[in-house]
Amino acid sequence: MKFWRLIPILLLSFSLSAEGEDAGFAGLEISYGYNRRLIAQRPVPKGDFKKLVIPVKRVGNLIIVEATVDGIRGNFIFDTGAPYLVLNATYFRDYEEDNQHMATDVNGNVVPQKITKVERLKVLGMHYENLEADVSDLSAIENRRGIQILGLLGVNLFMRMEIELDMRNEQLIVYRVDREGRRLEAPYLATEKEFRKTFSLENNAIIAQGSIDSLALDLCFDTGAEALLLDNDLPAKAYEQMRITRTIELNGAGGSSAEVLVGAIRKLEFGPDLENCQIMIADLEEIGRAYGHPVDGFVGYDLLRKGSVCINFKTQELIINVYP
Fold first, then answer.
1. Do 198 and 113 share a structural domain?
2. Fewest beta carbons less than 10 Å away: which of 2, 203, 263, 277?
3. What is the pLDDT of residues 46-72, one digit of tens each?
4. 6 assigned to some structural domain
5. Measured between alpha carbons, how far is 76 from 320 in angstroms, rounded to an integer?
6. Which residues span the domain enclosing 243?
7. What's this model's pTM, rounded to 2 decimal places?
């Protein structure tokens, strides 16, 4: 039996220049699908640490981490929109096609799923052994951002830990936790400017509730999303907060395309209020089917620039600490 899935690489390469003009949207490539065997895996992080501070850098609104895969060292995108480790087919050509797991792109085109084995993945003082990874063409991301990308570091690599992403200090902090989700290094200390949100994991997607003008929405927290993305079938009340400025073409891996609306939104609540943000509106129905849970939109860098974000996979809680 073949399993058909549709999962986006939500790397929304959409940004505005200082003059407010489009600084280059070279086409959003959505080109890989879920492999349910990989989703179910929970790799064990190894290394002598209770707390590990990993430097990150920002390229556009993407979060870059340096890592080494089987002796190849380079840039990886830290991407909670990716369910597991994804490697760039440009550099990793030793793979097998999995005939039991066919993938489709956003427009329904069938693309072959490729799987490879990784002996060792090392990120600073933390490493993993004997992993499986998805292999996908990430060249469109490289071309748009002008940087070599070896792959994506996805959610299942971190599900045994708590992580904190602090973009102001350019740090990804990894904490080992006990069975109840408590940090081994030191307890978490609450702050006055924190927001807490429970989340569910739907095929490794982090789904939490947000709102527009008191209208509740199920939103995916995706650190690879450079702009807000919302579904085109929300109640009319949601769109009253938006101003649409133009349309663009969203490109699928098979060469077909779909129209996407682009504009700005006055305010979206996801813990703190995200105000006057860029927004894209597209049909997310198939993405929801792939998650097994309807999704109303995606939140990424617009949240990260408001404050540090902790993700505790044991307690399934997001903690956003707003920057002063």
1. no
2. 2
3. 999 999 999 999 998 899 999 999 999
4. no
5. 24
6. 194-322
7. 0.87
